[in-house]
Amino acid sequence: MLDFDLAGIYQVETRVLNQAVQRNIRRFPDDFMFQLTKREWENISSQFVMTSRLKRPKSARPFAFTEHGVTMASTVLKSDVAIDASILVVRAFIAIRNLVLNPPVNEVKELQNEVKELKYYVESVFEDYNDINEDTRIQLELINESLAELQAKKKALEKPRNPIGF
Fold first, then answer.
1. Is residue 166 part of a domain?
2. What's the pTM?
3. Residues spanned by the domain of 69
4. Mind listing the pLDDT tens digit for each residue in 40-72?
5. How many domains does the chain have?
6. If you count Cβ atoms within 10 Å of the first and of the last residue's Cβ in the chain, which end, N or C, has fewer?
7. Mind listing the pLDDT tens digit for each residue in 15-42?
């Protein structure tokens, strides 16, 4: 993302963004930010239809930010939007860490496995005595069918929803 686009997103002037970056240059290694070459800038600027975005001299080449640089820029800017973005990034990392440490449990699948184990155990005990009755088998089959229905309902509820916004 180019510096003037990023400045627009964070609602600061491009020069303010670039000054903040220069004051904190150690936070922006080459894989976070780099300056376009003269040739790259000429190729890009020739493709812009709207010249209002190019309020910089042709000799002033913009900086390009990677996704890490965009995130880092939000930490060195003082605009409300940049502060909010920085907070959201931190919260996203916390949510990802929590998901990794505490993965969601598929309770229906877990119950189904436990019932299956129980079924095998019960059947093996009754087979030993050759005394398993038809009612027990029917009940175990009904339990398995109910679990399968619950799992199907859960899958239907977990269908991805259409995204809202952009």
1. no
2. 0.52
3. 3-101
4. 888 887 776 554 455 666 668 899 998 888 888
5. 2
6. C
7. 999 999 999 999 999 999 999 998 888 8
